[in-house]
Amino acid sequence: MANGGPKGACCVCGGGISMLSSAVDVPLQDKLLLSPEDGLDKRTLVAPQDALPDKFLSGGVTAPYDKVPKKFLPSLANVQEKQTPYALPGMTVRFYDAPPGDDCEGPSAISSVIDRELDYSSKQSSNFISLLEHKFKQAEKGSVFYGRWTGTINLFAGGQYAFNLSGSLDTETSVKIDGQEILTPGQCLAAKNEYSCVMKSCRWDTNICVSPFQAVAWAADAAAPVSAQTVELMAQRRAVRADALAEAPAASPAGAPVDAAADAVGRSPASAGTAPALAGAAPALAGAAPAVAAPARAAPAVAAPAPGQAVAPANAPGPALMAPANAPGPALEGPAAAAASTAAPVAAPMATLGGAPASAASAPPLPTVFAQACESNQHVVSNACIACPPGTENAAGDDNSGPDTSCDPMICAANQHVQHNKCIACPAGSTNAPGDDASGADTQCDPIACLANQRVRQNACVACPAGTSNAVTVLATGNDTKCDSFACAANQHVVSNACAACPSGTTNAAGDDASGPDTKCDAIVCLANQHVVSNSCRVCPAGMSRAAGDDASLSDTICDAFSCSSNQHVVSKACTACPPGKFNNAGDDATGPDTDCTPILCGGNQHVLSNACTACPAGTTRKAGDDASRNNTKCDAISCLGNQYVAAHACTACKAGTTNKAGDDASGADTTCDAILCSENQHVLANACVPCPAGTRRDAGDVASGTNTACDAIKCLANQFVQSNACKTCPAGTTNPAGNDASGPDTQCDTSECAANEKVISNECVGCPPGKVSAAGQDAAGGNTTCTEVKCPANQHVVDHACIACPAGTTNIAGDYASGPDTKCAAIKCLANQHVISNSCMACPAGATNAAGDDASGDNTQCKGTACLENQHVVSHACVGCPAGKFSSAGDEASGADTQCEAITCFSNEHVVSNSCAACPAGTTNKAGDDASGVDTQCDSVTCSANQHVAANACLACPAGKSRAGGDYASGGNTTCDAIACLQNQYVASNACKSCPAGTIKAAGDDASGANTQCNAITCSENERVVSNSCAVCPAGTTNPAGDAANGADTQCEAVTCSANQRVKSNACVPCPAGTTNKAGDDASGDDTYCEAIICPENQRVEDNACTVCPAGTRNQAGDKASGKNTKCDAIKCVANQFVQSNACHTCKLGTINPAGDDASGPDTQCRQAATWMVNLKAGGHCVEVVVMTKSPTADFQLRYQGPDTDQAEVVVPGQALFCDPVVPACKNPELDACSAIRPTCGANAPAPAAAPAASPGVGELPLFAPAAAAPASEVPIPKGWSVPEMVTLAPDVKVDKPMALRMVPAS
Known about the structure:
There is one protein chain. With 1308 residues, the protein is mostly beta strands. Strands 1, 2, 4, 6, 7, 92, 94 and 97 form an eight-stranded mixed β-sheet that branches. Strands 3, 5, 93, 95 and 96 form a five-stranded antiparallel β-sheet that branches. A two-stranded antiparallel sheet has the order 8-9.
């Protein structure tokens, strides 16, 4: 449209070809059939997109260049005699992206169009497939949308009509007649399954969905020709409408739209034009009625167009669309073209456009384009608005009627880069300078390199936490990094995450973590004999002392008079260690006179070794009393008892089965016990010698300490037999071979000769008596015989009637008779100063002696060395007394080398008198060391030291816990000591003031002379821990209960573990922000943590940062963040044929229906009884509404009807019987508007529908179009007040005898 005309409106004149009007003041010959200003979607406005068949595209049918030939201008000019705009026939259709509501509620329409008829089917004639498309620039191909057709149907005859929305669309559909919803068979028949059938309130019958009001479904494509009577009435009605349009004024009211254009949607040419629409609606029309003569007042016929030209009906640019001026061929082919070229001369077609007549000679040049401002990001190329190239942009407003324009490169902002000609934000952790040209090649962002002492956190460089550093260069595009904590140097501590020098008088070890909490330096504690001077520890002056523990961080301290420690004594005002082997109690005043130490007396089992009491060597012992300050002493060897042996210098009991004589020396080498040897006929059982069982024997010598042994069976000798497990001699005159087992059963002897050492007694071989022998061979059958006596030689004795050698160390004279009793050898007795070696008597070594009588048959013996007595020494293996004034300890071995006596050294407070040490007189003293072997010496007068007092002319140490200044003379009267008062943080231990142990405290004033006292442990407060016996504050994010004792071991604070829905912030657990959550377990001693937004599940909404279940009847998608603003649930909208019960959508029962859109969150609703598709309607206008949900493109449904107007044949409702609904700008002043009566009132601000013009008498009964008929013109019924004009026209594809049609106008 031109300036001032509405944009976004369009009318479709059938067949998918749109004819758009330009301004009424443009000369007729310059009018374009398509105006680029009318804001269709931004694709090129060319006819090919309207789905014309290829045969219509050969001439390049491009709408902006279609021109009206001059020869048709008179006819078009005649149409513009009346400028009153009238709406074109058809139904108003509005498109939605959501289910439409009524005209007051629900979503707004996205676009609109006027359809000639509701016929989108792949079964149309004329080689066209009509496609329904959603003409909206944001709609995606294949997306779901909703079409809502409304308009008025004009019925010429009243009666029962059946409507049917047929096709194969199994979607949401509805049909209403005068606001009453009906259920048509085609809606049911489209259902593909039982569920879909029931949802439509239809009935599933043997795998087919039928209406609940019928037994079988209608055929989807049932069709019948329109009756001739109906065709005639429609033709008359059409002629009247065309006449009215031709005489209507051209101008619209100021600001009102001239035509509807921009919402055009292509239609099939089956409904295009005036006559083609009828031809498509009633295919049996052609040739059905006889031709009629032209009326008497008909104007002369207009000559037929020349070849190559075609007639374009005013409102139908479909098949009759003009070809471009330079088109090489005809614009029409087929029957339409044939009719146009062979029929009789026809009148020029009528147009809906107004305008003054113009001749060919006076026609101005046809403009090629109307000025239009391009949208943003478009530029002008050859007078067309073209999208900017990728990566460029342009402001809106370029004039497409002017020269070409260009787009500017899109310059990316800082931190953006080019990707596919778009400015994209840099990846996290990278950056880019502004200025990248999006129209060029892709660019990259540079990784951000963090500076020193920065770290990466969430792809950003952030400063290291206080007390940490980072020297490594890292890129922010990587993972998070950490800074390294740095350790303070020695004598530094942490203050506000920095290392600061320790205060004067304090110290600290290196290593404090500057990233942690503040630390403290420890006070420097002075050592013993040090005091504080200007916060430093200085050595006390000579003769002065001070206990360790002075705090160098506090004020100066002073040393006290020096007291010697234990085992020290005063020598020349200095504390000197006691001589070896002596001791002294602490407390000697170094400022006083010299003092002496006391000899140390050794205890039991100790001996003196290098002036120390040393434990006796293993296996030795010694009585108590040895003086450690004198010569070394020795311990005596321990002698073990019988059945004991030496093991590691200890007397240990012999093991079972072994024995040992008494006397083993425990100080010597380890000894062993001898095994016990079993006697003959004994065996070992449990380490003991036990008798052999009857009939068995065993040789002597089994070792009882070994394993168990067994006895062997006794084998009887020859001439013996077994009787009661004993070998018995065979009776006289009998014999028996050797070998009878005495442990077995009894045996018998046979007669035999006597063996050797047997004699015959009473005819029996009898063994010679022990100690006697005889030769073998004596006949037991003979007389008695005798055996010969055996005599033992010297150094043998009788054992079991046998001569056996004397044991070692024994002797015997010859002559013992072996037949007699056993004899013994006498032991050899050693003489004096002899000892036994290997059972022989050997002389003792020089200096050693031994008493006579050692038994040479026994064990070896030792000679004992001569031990000199005390004060004796060895001279030539003899003990000689020491000279006067000298001494020697007892025990010198005379068998050894010569020894010497030592000079007697007098103890302290002794002096020499006649080579003896005598005690000094009371009140006098003498140093130790006077040599008693020399001349007499004298004692000096005694002056008491500090911490001593005089008692009975002696300087005695003050009682424990008391003190006294030195200087008392021991020779004077008795003196007393004063009690010592302990200082702060000292306690009494054994009457001495001791510094409190680390971690304890005590008030000053304890009396050291009293009972022991104790310091009190320092108890740490809550959130403190023990560090080096001091209470230190827990590190941030950690905790510790009160009660740690500072005098114990170091303790640790435990990390604070945050509870669920808490996070770490500055090392503290804080609640998560509202609407967020976090798992329990965050460590408060670590880095800050974050809570995650709570994501509400499906059908929950956010209310006060909490996920709340949606109210009944509402729903919500999952994903709302509870941390954000409150959200709402959307009401559940029931689909068609559902009703609300208890806030839920339920399917309507069979035979009942309900339109879509019931709000499940509201009150309960009800389904109503479905109206049958058979309705009784009066003649005249009735409101029709059809709603269909579908996808683009669609070609699958029709609105059909049957009744009196169709001779009961079901046909597509033709456009001639339809009037658009004036709810869109494209529909102006329809002649019939039955929908306004049932349209709801929407309030004061709602747009009012366009008012219908006042109908002339009988206008509702006028036919739309009528072909020429054989009857005379007078037979055509002319309503009262109407006349037949001169102008006639003919649709090119209607074949009649005379190509003529009637056009009636009001007679006035």
